[in-house]
């Protein structure tokens, strides 16, 4: 998670732009009727690079999903505890969140 937090938003934007550019290049090469051996090699290399990048992005997404889920659960449990102790503001928040958390609670 520490590594994910270190990612600069500008770097993410740049990576997105580069991926879109690569995607355009791939589509351009794929649409060529007569591909040269260099085109075929470039397609293979780009495909491997995109697969690796995609895996890294999937890993980051999974880390973020798990982390955010844990934090949301901790927040919910704390609000639930405060509501049971009589905190009226926490009770409002708890009642708002309760249905969503109970709907997906596997316990």
Automatic annotation (TrEMBL):
Domain of life: Bacteria
Descriptive protein name: Uncharacterized protein
Organism expressing this protein natively: Epilithonimonas mollis
